[in-house]
Specification:
Blueprint (H helix, E strand, L loop, with lengths): L4 H26 L9 H25 L4 E2 L4 H7 L7 H20 L3 H4 L2 E4 L3 E4 H28 L12
Helix pairs in contact: 1-4, 1-6, 2-3, 2-4, 2-6
Amino acid sequence: MLKGGASEAAFAVLDSTPNVLRSLTPALEQSTAQDEGWSAADVVAHLVDAETVAFAERIRRMVDEDDPFIESIDPPRRLLEGGYSERTLAELVDELAKLRSANLAVARALSPEQLARTARHDEAGEITLEGIIHQWAYHDLMHLSQVASILQEPLVTRMGNTRRFYGL
């Protein structure tokens, strides 16, 4: 099991992401704003998709295989092909919560020897299982920041002179 401040912080982020998204779902459902061409539903769909292919599958392969070759994914293509647009934001958040719970149980049970296992990533080179877990948390925070940007955009025009507090 991962021990120490950074690792515990990574698990805290991973634990909380579905609940943060669930609490923001009503506001996100009303938002039509986009960040970097992604809607709120796109961001959550990507998190669901990445949960399986970019994290759970990579962790499983790194435990089961010796130094596996890991290929990058194409998130926009996967979103189009995955049928995510047919699902509601609430359904996507619920699926993320379900997948995350199961995946974290696996990640928390990893031994120090398993955490040290490596893989070869087509872009990053050598990666470790422990590194994947920390990247998973960073990835969540990056997309939570993106969600915050989506929610901020429609607020700016109605802030009046208080926009000056933020250099807007």
